[in-house]
Every structure is written in C-alpha cells, then in structure tokens.
Write a structure and sequence with these properties.
By secondary structure, this protein is mainly alpha-helical. The chain has two domains: 28 residues; 129 residues, no CATH class. Helices cover 72% and strands 7% of the residues. The chain has a two-stranded antiparallel ribbon. Helix 2 runs antiparallel to helix 4 and helix 4 crosses helix 6. The mean pLDDT is 84.
C-alpha cells in the first residue's frame, strides 16, 4: 500500500521531468552550420589565438569571440600559432573552413540588417558592437595565415568573397 501511495506521489514528478526532457530535445536550438569534423577544427583554430566559438540560440547565430580581454595587438601576436594549427589540415579542409567562417560573418551582417529594418535596436546593436567586430578580426587573422601557408589560397579567398558578396 505504501508503495502505491509513493508511486502516485512520484508519478507526476516523473511525468513533468519526462515532458521537460522531451520538450527540450524537440525545441533545442543548436548550430547547424558546422559538421562534427569542422567543429573540431573550429575549436583548435579558435583556441590557437585565444578565441572561442558559440551559438546564440535566441538570435540563431554562430559566433567567435575573444576568450578574455586582449588587445588586437596581443591577438595578432598569437597568429603564428594559428598558422601551425592550420598547417595540420588539408588545403580543401582549410578552404571549406574559411568558407564557413565567411558564411557565419555574412549571417551576422544579414541578421543585423534585418533587426535594423524591424527597428529591433537592442539585437542590431548587440550584433554590430559585440559579435561582428570579433568575427571580422578572426576572419582577418585567418586570411593572413592562409596566405602565409600558401599564396594560392588568395584565389580561393577571392572566389569565396565574391560568392558571398563580401567586399
């Protein structure tokens, strides 16, 4: 009898937990931009210059950010480490990775412009002042390192920029 009463008391809690877990699994917002292997590369490359990556579920944006308070000069001084990490990868992986970073940066610009058009100044300003500058810094360092590894990457960079309409 006690077991039945205990089960009756615990059952609603179990159902709530099950529903909560199921709801989170169904509605979980996560990045769909990177494959598993690209995520490994992203983690290694960003860490090499003390950057990290994340996903903002409310804005549905992937982003990279400085993992601390570093000046641009300090970040630039870590660029040779990125070059070493990139050198471990095949050229096609590096080019594909660069394309994904450009795609991420373009998504920032696109979302920022949409928020401006909708007059959602909080989100537009957040992207403009915090997310976009660090993405552009990361992209700049990535481009420079790619060119140092192999100058023929310049043609691929131009193609990707043209395709994605970055100036």
């Amino acid at each position: 009898m006690r077991i039945k009463i205990l089960l009756i008391m615990i059952l609603p809690l179990l159902l709530v937990e099950c529903k909560s877990t199921l709801w989170n699994a169904i509605t979980k917002k996560e990045s769909k931009l990177y494959t598993d292997s690209e995520l490994i590369m992203l983690e290694e490359v960003t860490a090499s210059i003390d950057f990290r990556y994340g996903f903002e579920p409310d804005l549905k944006l992937d982003y990279v950010f400085k993992a601390g308070r570093f000046t641009d000069k300090e970040i630039q001084s870590k660029a040779p480490e990125m070059k070493k990490v990139l050198a471990k990868y095949k050229p096609e992986e590096i080019i594909s990775f660069y394309g994904k970073i450009v795609q991420m940066r373009d998504a920032h610009v696109s979302e920022m412009n949409e928020y401006r058009q909708d007059e959602d100044w909080n989100d537009a300003t957040y992207i403009e002042k915090y997310i976009l500058p660090e993405a552009e810094l990361f992209l700049d360092i990535l481009e420079k390192n790619m060119m140092q590894i192999n100058s023929s990457y310049g043609d691929e960079i131009k193609k990707i920029k043209t395709k994605n309409l970055i100036k």
